[in-house]
Backbone:
């Protein structure tokens, strides 16, 4: 992946922050592997993915946060990480007609471990007082993620669905120092529930109503995730 124009040349300054250009960034160089095992059933399938990847010169945006009241502006720039290694496994299950013919189930769970394995090019030039980031988790990569959705076909035209989404807490900074939760800039874990119902009036006309984040859970990923949300849709296929 080649660096984009923003990563190479963005440069700005105001009274409290500086954005510093990095025209010397090299392209990311990745080697990716995935092995998939799949078993098909008469009413669905089960799948296992085992994956690993190594990315050299990984490009990551970082901001130097300073204490409140500091007269020195914060600095935002793009860093080039020598090597990031990611290993993981994912299980996927799709089953139609579970227990009763009208009930369908979709489930997946993934474990991902993404670690900064080498940053010697940069850290060799840093003062000894600066803590090494080697061995840290790579930002925005939760260890555990999972989704579960069940759909009940009440009739040929009416469906009722419910789902739950889960993600583990992660870090937003390379130094893994951002451990605060439920604040702007955090990378919170979450468990969110949703429900939806849809009805086909004709072969072309469908209406649906749903609720996301039923429990109105507060969580952040730099910005706040949406709270309880309602949506109504009407669609017509030509």
Residues:
């Amino acid at each position: 992946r080649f660096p984009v124009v923003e990563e190479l040349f963005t440069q700005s300054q105001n009274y409290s922050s500086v954005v510093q250009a990095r025209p010397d960034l090299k392209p990311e160089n990745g080697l990716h592997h995935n092995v998939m095992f799949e078993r098909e059933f008469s009413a669905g399938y089960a799948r296992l993915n085992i994956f690993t990847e190594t990315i050299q010169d990984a490009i990551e945006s970082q901001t130097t946060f300073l204490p409140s009241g500091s007269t020195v502006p914060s600095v935002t720039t793009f860093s080039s990480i020598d090597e990031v290694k990611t290993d993981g496994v994912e299980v996927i299950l799709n089953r139609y007609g579970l227990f009763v013919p009208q009930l369908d189930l979709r489930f997946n769970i993934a474990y991902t471990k993404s670690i900064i394995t080498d940053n010697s090019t940069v850290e060799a030039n840093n003062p000894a007082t600066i803590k090494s980031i080697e061995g840290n988790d790579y930002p925005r990569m939760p260890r555990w993620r999972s989704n579960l959705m069940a759909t009940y076909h009440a009739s040929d035209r009416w469906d009722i669905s419910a789902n739950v989404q889960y993600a583990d807490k992660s870090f937003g900074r390379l130094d893994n120092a951002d451990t605060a939760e439920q604040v702007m800039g955090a990378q919170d874990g979450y468990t969110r529930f949703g429900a939806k119902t849809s009805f086909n009036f004709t072969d072309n006309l469908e209406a649906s109503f749903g609720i996301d984040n039923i429990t109105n859970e507060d969580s952040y990923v730099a910005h706040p995730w949406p709270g309880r949300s309602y949506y109504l849709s009407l669609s017509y296929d030509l």
Q: What stands out?
A: The first strand starts at residue 12 and ends at 13. The chain has a mean pLDDT of 90. DSSP finds two helices and 13 strands in the chain. The CA atoms of residues 3 and 207 lie 43 Å apart.
